[in-house]
Design a protein that fits this description.
Bound molecules: zinc ion
Number of strands: 19
Strand content: 25-35%
Helix content: 25-40%
Shape: globular
Length: 433
């Protein structure tokens, strides 16, 4: 049966200003030497609640943060389940990966030189943030009103494959799609603009809080559409940078470019999205390569690489506590299926572009959206290509993230197989409607 164009949806929106009110360590760069000095731009978490014609409630959360690590995401999800009856597969926590937002949880602990005083500020902010996000999810659910959903994609040429810096011979794939999900009220007015792009938010690297280019993109869209809320979703931008970088003008310019691409989509013909909204959340164990021995870790303590040194300290602590190092990581995969119209695949970690290109090729370039930085950000997720090329994402970054070793060569195939399993389960359900 084919349902009429989506009058059956209900949608609610909510936002919360998550700008820190005291100096706090900013996340993403190991080179910063002190906490924040001020606020260039306020940062936000935003929620879009959707109810389909079968009464399923689903909430998408975006945030101007480096990422939600599991020790922050899991308690938020547990509280949303307890307080609002929201099943785990119907809450999705994505972050823009701005490098000008506070450190939260234990994320990237070996990357930073801060001490106990700074850690106390981070813990206080993290607890406050969890409360704010849960409360916001509740408000979005109380805001449900009849809505129409539509989807289309644009293109923007901001993302550059950053692995080509110093390795111009690399193939350097990028995903320059700008997927846009528009939520309109029963009267046709725009209530929410959800838009994605696959590129690091690393234009700015000073001591001012901001959403980087994605913050400016959201602000530009909300300026044009003051009655609506713009939500940015970070896609598989782990190996993409906006280049060149490091000025406020560039951050603003890239933001306005991405906003203009989304604007063009909004002005054009968009395809209606039908329900029901199917959802699956799964975890798959991704194995690490053989970790270093205790002896090797001890020898790293006197090495010159500061990340290797701090990582070795952390690993020796885990060895003393648990008797062994973890040999795998429970990797989160969440997939939403909007009727037969759109498959939204949300992956944990800093996901390199190959995953996005692969899943779009596999399931359809016109109706598949692949996000990274969702539900847990704990490492880069290299593809086989990136592991073979070597370098930061599959190698050195694992030290800064506090992981015991690089991922095994099979990481891409293990994730792809699990995604396929989940997508097939959802397609079987959808074919019944
Ligand atoms: Zn990153």
């Amino acid at each position: 049966m084919c349902l009429p164009a989506s009058a059956a949806w209900q949608a609610g929106v909510a936002r919360v200003d998550i700008t820190p009110t005291e100096p706090i360590w900013l996340a993403g760069y190991g080179a910063r030497t002190h906490p924040s000095e001020g606020v260039r731009q306020h940062i936000f978490a935003k929620a879009l609640a959707l109810q389909d014609d079968q009464g399923n409630l689903t909430v998408l959360v975006s945030s101007d943060l480096l990422g939600f690590p599991r020790e922050v995401a899991d308690p938020i999800a547990a509280r949303a389940q307890k307080q609002f009856g929201l099943p785990r597969e119907r809450l999705l926590l994505n972050s823009s990966h701005t490098h000008s937002a506070p450190v939260i949880g234990d994320m990237l602990r070996p990357a930073y030189p801060f001490g106990d005083a700074e850690l106390a500020v981070i813990k206080r902010y993290t607890h406050w943030l969890e409360d704010q996000v849960v409360e916001m999810i509740g408000r979005s659910l109380h805001d449900l009103k009849p809505a129409e959903l539509s989807f289309e994609q644009g293109l923007a040429g901001v993302a550059v494959n950053r692995r080509r810096v110093g390795h111009r011979e690399y193939p350097g794939p990028v995903d320059q799609d700008v997927p846009v999900l528009a939520v309109r009220g029963a009267d046709g007015s725009l209530r929410a603009i959800v838009f994605g792009y696959a590129c690091h938010n690393t234009v700015l690297n000073d001591y001012q809080v901001s959403g980087d280019w994605a913050g400016y993109a959201q602000a530009a869209l909300e300026k044009t559409h003051p009655a609506s809320m713009a939500m940015f979703i970070q896609d598989c931008g782990a190996d993409a940078n906006p280049l060149p970088r490091h000025s406020v003008d560039l951050a603003q310019g890239y933001g306005e470019t991405i906003a203009a691409a989304a604007e063009e989509v909004l002005k054009g013909k968009m395809r209606p999205l039908h329900g029901p909204l199917g959802a699956v959340f799964a975890r798959v164990d991704i194995p690490f390569q053989t970790p270093p021995s205790r002896q090797e870790l001890q020898s790293r303590l006197s090495g010159t690489d500061v990340y290797a040194r701090r990582n070795a300290q952390l690993m020796l602590h885990i060895l003393d506590r648990d008797g062994k190092l973890p040999d795998h990581y429970p990797y989160p995969i969440e997939v939403w299926q909007f009727g037969k119209d759109l498959t939204f695949i949300a992956l944990g970690g800093e996901v390199v572009v190959d995953y996005s290109l692969r899943f779009k090729r596999q399931y359809g370039v016109d109706n598949v959206w692949v996000a990274g930085y969702s539900n847990d950000v704990f490492a880069y997720i290299p593809s086989l290509r990136v592991l073979r090329e070597g370098g930061y994402e599959g190698g050195g970054a694992m030290l800064a993230y506090g992981q015991p070793a690089p991922f095994a060569w099979a990481v891409e195939e293990i994730i792809a197989e699990k995604v396929d399993d989940v997508v097939k389960r959802l397609s079987e359900r959808t074919s019944d409607y």
